[in-house]
Automatic annotation (TrEMBL), chain A:
GO cellular component: glycerol-3-phosphate dehydrogenase (FAD) complex
Stored InterPro entries: FAD-dep_OxRdtase_2_FAD-bd (IPR003953), FAD-oxidoreductase_2 (IPR050315), FAD/NAD-bd_sf (IPR036188), G3P_DH_GlpB_su (IPR009158), NAD(P)-bd_dom_sf (IPR036291)
Record-linked NCBIfam families: glycerol3P_GlpB, PRK05329.2-3
Keyword hit for Oxidoreductase: yes
UniProt superkingdom: Bacteria
GO molecular function: glycerol-3-phosphate dehydrogenase (quinone) activity
Keywords: FAD, Flavoprotein, FMN, Oxidoreductase
Stretches assigned to the FAD-dependent oxidoreductase 2 FAD-binding domain: 3-414
Pfam families recorded: FAD_binding_2 (PF00890)
The protein's name in its UniProt record: Glycerol-3-phosphate dehydrogenase subunit B
Cofactor(s) annotated in UniProt: FAD
From TrEMBL, chain B:
Sequence segments annotated as region (Disordered): 1-23
Gene Ontology annotations for the cellular component aspect, listed alphabetically: glycerol-3-phosphate dehydrogenase (FAD) complex; membrane
Highest classification ranks of the organism: Bacteria, Bacillati, Actinomycetota, Actinomycetes, Propionibacteriales
Gene Ontology biological-process entries: anaerobic respiration
MF terms (GO), sorted A to Z: 4 iron, 4 sulfur cluster binding; metal ion binding; oxidoreductase activity
Biased composition (Polar residues): 10-23
NCBIfam families: glycerol3P_GlpC, PRK11168.1
Name of this chain's protein: Glycerol-3-phosphate dehydrogenase subunit C
Amino acid sequence: MRDVVVVGAGLTGLVASIRLRRAGLEVTLVHQGIGGLQLGQGTIDVLGYRPERVARPLDELADFLAAQERQGGPSHPYAVTGPEAITEGVGFLSQLVGPQLLVGDVHTNVALPTAIGALRPTSLYQPSMADGLVSLDPAEPGALHAGCRVVVVGIDELKDFPAQLIAGNLAATDLPDGGRLSTRAAQVSFPARGSEVDSTGLNIARALDDPARRSEFARVLSAVVEPGETVALPAVLGIEDARAFPELRAQLGTALFEIPLPPPGVPGMRINEKLTRIARAERVEIISGSALTGITAEADRVSEVIVATSGHDTHIPARAVLLAPGGFESGALRLDSYQQLSEPILDLPVARPSGELINDSWAREQPLFRAGLATDTDMVVLDPRTGGPVHRNLHAAGGILAGAQRWDEKSGEGIALASAMRACEAIVARCEEKDHD
Amino acid sequence: MTETRRLDASTRQPTQAWSGNGSDMSVWEHLRKASPRLNHNPNSYEAQQLNRVSLDQCVKCTICETQCPVARVTELFSGPKYVGPQAERFRNGESVDHTLDYCSSCGICTLACPQGVRVAEINSMARAVMKQGHMPLRDRLITQTTLEGKLMTPIAPVANWALRRKPIRVAVEKVVGVHRDAPMPVAQRQTVQGWLKHRSGPTPRRSDQPARGPVIFFTGCAGAYFEVETSKKTIEVLEYLGFDVIVPKQGCCGLAEQSNGLFDGARAKIRALCEQLSAAGREPTIVSSSGSCAGMVKHEAHEIMGVEDPQVLDVGARLRETSEFLLDLYDHGQLPTDFRRIDSRFVYHAPCQLKAQGMGMPAIRLMELVPGVQVVESDENCCGIAGTYGLKKEKYEIAQAVGRPLFEKIKATNKEFAVCDTETCRWQIREGSGAKTVHPIHLIHAAYGLSEIDSPQV
């Protein structure tokens, strides 16, 4: 008998598995495919918009949640987890991956340039992005501030980084301090290997894991960089070798930062690899490539989960289950052409906002994305029709939760981490309780 | 009261929805009617399947590309998404992208896909169609694994001597196309069947173990002729635990032919094999220490070659890899764990075709039940060999480059000893790292006191 089966290997599933394992539990992590971390930006968003841009996410949380409450519909996940779980979750992740991968402060948002030259708020970011940091507090200017000169350098062999567009948009953006940046675009050629003319960001990052290729890249860059300029590059500065970014920055002798690319992104992969390796090394039992196909319930609790191993189903008896499969984007929630919402694996009851789920505006929020699973503060899945638990030991966390507009709010990672903490706390308490029986 | 909460399987599994639920007019039949051009294709199942439903689930997230061990080391292969769900849209029974031939069929892409796209399966089928009419002789020869075993066993010393002679290997490379440095099996003087016939009797059952009834042992060709020690040790451990081990006369599963696109031969082989295994008993669990052959029987025959034979499906459903089987006993409190201490820290590499079976890595938990054992998981997707891929002269260098990080990790962790569940991977790892590389059962066999871990057979 395993103590916990965790379903899903995104940020929620990985962090929760490690947390539960460190609490001494026997944890099996089941997932179909690699989780969503490398599809994100490799940063930790807590709350970016409410809908105006948020500078102090935890300080502004109460006002945000009050507005959410007035709007009606399923409770926002932060209203369920409370703010302490956010701090705890972000702190736990920071400690897991270390300052080589994540820096910043959960209380303070910063803005970072994106791959279209917009400024995007986030809380924690990678050290390789720090030189591109725009402060949201006019009293304390960040690395990039009014009057800074930035050269956005594109790589001919990498199609996903439009340097001209980025430089143009950045120059046209008002900074929180009222000023603007002075930008220009430049292009270099750097084939990742051989004569490859169309490389992925990952292949260039792998090339830059090699110290010799790094020196070559620094030489290529120095030909287009002028003294006093900050260099903006696509996020390809090494994947395995943590020395890649600091060495390149030192060799170039100038401020230098990475801008995340469209997925799959190298910064997200760095975090995914790190967490996966920790989970494996600490003996979270990982079953990859296996879809959850069902659960068996006895009375009011789940007794085992069923996964589709090749050739036969595998039944894994467990004391608790944590569902962390993501939301619509992962196929974990579905809407059919009759506007019927469902959770397609276990057919769990889905909480939904009242009224229309989809409207024809491309810019306004789509209420659909507030649909998901409702839970109590232990993250136990509730039936929204009765308000009671579906099964007493079936928990849910992360993107499958109801009540948030994660993309609009920029709250995805914060919700993942906070709900993972709450679920872990409840599961550990339950398993300890059982030990005393 | 027990209830099972799940939706009907047919709405979930693309492959099952695809088979038409027994109705006369399956999706396939529709496609066959709609596309007469494909009908004339001698591999029409594969050609039809090219239009597989699952590729519509691809959201172009490109996660598979980030995990492909071949695309990591060579620009000759554009990667699983580009030759798979992407190029697939342009195929109409014919291939538009011949770099597909560089796919090693390791299956890591399917394993990595969060949307359930059968990327590797799509690519294996597309390659079979692409190679029709110009199948290299080499690919027909090296896939005859049973024949190789049968020919080499009686002349084992001569065969082993010959395989170590450079001039002979150079000639083989020039004539057949098998790389001169590619890892080769070591021929044994005795097959498993020969050993069974001549041994004095089954291993005595442990005094505290109940008689547990029969299990059927599936050796795999390599397990029958080359990695004979692995088969012997599996049989002995199972007998020691109280099982009656039935080892029927058995042929090849056809995996090598399947991965080379020789589907007709592979289909005939898997059917014959499952006939033989079924004849040994309709009920017992079938155990195999040949991880990749187990994968062929469990899912690849069905998913890649469309074998719907109920006997094949039944054998696949009853089949367990040895570590999977023993760990299941442990989880049910039925495995004695009074193991002898073995102080060893070593790299364990789970082969791609084991990972593809969706059972996790049972060998890790199993081996760590032995006091003193510290398993270091390889963290590598693939060793490079991918069955016969790394033997081919044009792919040898790629296969070595794929395996290099694994070899380096073994050299840095424990250069004497490593563990891996499948035969060709062990040959590749032995050659690449120099470490004595064994199946997990060797460790369990020794920990039960049935052999010494550093005995010459290991």
